[in-house]
Specification:
With about 200 residues, this protein is mainly β. It is built from two helices and 13 strands; from the N terminus they run E-H-E-E-E-E-E-E-H-E-E-E-E-E-E. The longest helix has 16 residues.
Length: about 200
């Protein structure tokens, strides 16, 4: 049975785990793959960042803006895309997805972003809300909290923990991810991921 946690009064309005999961939150995630256009041979690619709406791609070949592509990405499969701009190291695309496919991609991206970096086991192929896995959260003062993951999204995660939660605004580390505490719960807390390069 899923644990239902009641919120304390101190809540940050800028972070909603379930809402952010469906929005075009762009995350740093390197996925290998290949792409085809104009019926030519396929070319290698690596995603620099990605959302369920599009991706920035590193590639030696740069299609023209508005070019229609077929992309094959590791762990995501076949995706139709349109080139929206060129970049110094490649190009950016917008995915052409049905709402159902978009939801499936959002689920899969959520899992890919989180399960290794939060130390979760890959128990389900693409869970809607991947929870229940243990996680070690390092606080700013060096203390380590033994937590249980109760919810994850493309933008952050929520944890259940014994004892008082870290205060709002504290920067914590979970695996390879840094996060800011943006919500306190009766038995835990929620964080938003801090993108690389963002000042803490």
């Amino acid at each position: 049975m899923q644990t239902r946690l009641k919120l304390k009064e101190q809540v940050s309005p800028r972070f909603d785990l379930r809402k952010d999961r469906r929005s075009n939150v762009r995350v740093d995630l390197a996925l290998n793959g290949r792409f085809l256009f104009d019926g030519a041979e396929d070319h290698g690619l690596l995603t620099r960042n990605i959302s369920c709406g599009g991706a920035e791609i590193v590639a030696h070949v740069q299609p023209e803006v508005d070019a229609q592509l077929i992309c094959y990405l590791d762990d995501l499969g076949r995706l139709e895309a349109e080139v929206v701009r060129r970049t110094p190291q490649g190009f950016a695309v917008r995915f052409k997805l049905t709402p159902r496919k978009r939801d499936k991609i959002a689920d899969r991206l959520t899992w890919l972003l989180n399960y290794k970096q939060l130390g979760l086991s890959d128990e389900r192929e693409a869970p809607r809300y991947a929870g229940g896995g243990p996680a070690l959260v390092s606080r700013a003062d060096g203390r380590v909290l033994q937590c249980r993951t109760i919810d994850i999204s493309l933008a952050g995660a929520a944890f259940e923990a014994d004892g008082p939660p870290p205060p709002l605004g504290e920067i914590v580390t979970v695996g390879n991810l840094r996060g800011e505490v943006v919500r306190t719960l009766r038995n835990g807390f929620a964080i938003r991921y801090i993108p690389r390069g963002e000042a803490s």
